[in-house]
Design goal:
The chain is α/β, with parallel strands linked by helices. The protein folds into two domains: 3-58 and 308-401, Aspartate Aminotransferase, domain 1, CATH 3.90.1150; 60-306, Aspartate Aminotransferase, domain 2 (3-Layer(aba) Sandwich). 38% of the residues lie in helices and 15% in strands. It has 14 helices and 14 strands. α3 (60-72) runs antiparallel to α11, α4 (85-97) packs parallel to α11 (291-306) and α12 packs parallel to α14 (384-401). The longest helix is centred in the last third of the chain and has 18 residues, at 384-401. It binds pyridoxal-5'-phosphate. Residues 50, 110-112, 115, 138-140, 192, 196-197, 225, 227-228, 253 line the site of pyridoxal-5'-phosphate.
Amino acid sequence: MEHHEILRQQFLRHVAQTSPSPLMISVARAEGVRFFTADDKPYYDLIAGVSVSNVGHSNPAVVEAVKRQAEQYMHVMVYGEMLYRPQIEYARRIAEHLPSPLESIYFTNSGAEAVEGALKLAKRYTHRTELISMRRAYHGSTLGAMAMMGTPEGEEWKSAFRPMPADIQSIEFNDFEALQRITERTACVLCEPVQGEAGVRTPADGYLMALRQRCDEVGALLIFDEIQTGMGRTGEMFAMTKYGVTPDIVCLAKAFGGGMPLGAFISSNAIMESLQNNPTLGHITTFGGHPVCCAAGLAALQYIEENHLVAEVERKGALYEELLTGHPMVREIRRSGLLLAVELGSEERLFATMEAFKEEGVLSDWFLYCSTAFRISPPLTISDDEIRDSSRIILRCLDRLA
Ligand SMILES: Cc1ncc(COP(=O)(O)O)c(C=O)c1O
């Protein structure tokens, strides 16, 4: 039996699948903005593992850092108690990129765990119970994070798993009047500064500032989920800088680990200290902040800095927008830096486009709450030539369906 066919059968039998129709593309190696299948078919990775591989696949600087750290030590003892250089160094360097007072970093395994930790911290600090999220928000798949998927759109995912954690409501993103629903009962409001899975929705002028003000008025904490927008994706190291709003807590993951599993929730020392007592060990994690993951994240951050990647993001995103705008199939392009939603206006068209992409060697994806648009969020290292070449392939696929 052919090697690929054996792999396919073993995958179907032994690896749990998340949908009835998995993509079934095998990966043999990856480099820069491309990956290659076992029979060496190249694919443009236009989603970068869903905003993970910002410094490109198999970035030599990251690979070297991983090797070096793995040779020194990997796991010794759970974190927050011992001194591990890669972790301390990465915490210090990330804090330099964040506005004051965001300087105390709690490392986690994933984005969902970062969100869980942030919600617990807000409850613990404010002694309040109500949590508020935004409609069409996605914050992760664990029960607490999932409960923060706004209603009614999030019901499709939540309803089979009820009961959800209690005292949660959602408000419409960009609705200034709805901010009045944030009150003295509210522990925190959790918000993506640019909504990712909603299909790339940017905040209206002044909205995040008004949200900040309302939280301040009633003493609720503001949590930004920058899991998808962080590490340069929107054209600033963090989207919060774009909008001039500092949250009380920020959650990071995805590209934060440079391709390794790593997340964090970050706050001021004053707020973070409340996790130490009543109870002690208010949030604990065996692997969160693993030295190898921190070494990878740190190397990726250094690569971003040394190669001035963030300064190029807006221009590169605009180039994609320019090249794809005007095709008769493209209804609209919503964009923040190198995070683009190319709106085709119908699910049928989108699914047919995805099939054509697969044949032509392009990996894209749609959005959890928007199955009429495809995603472009490539490694930030993508060159102008690669943007032009991948756009040509995209346009060719769209032509086939026009
Ligand atoms: C905005 C946002 N928050 C949280 C998460 C969850 O992160 P993870 O899959 O690492 O748990 C995601 C993942 O897609 C995300 O896009």
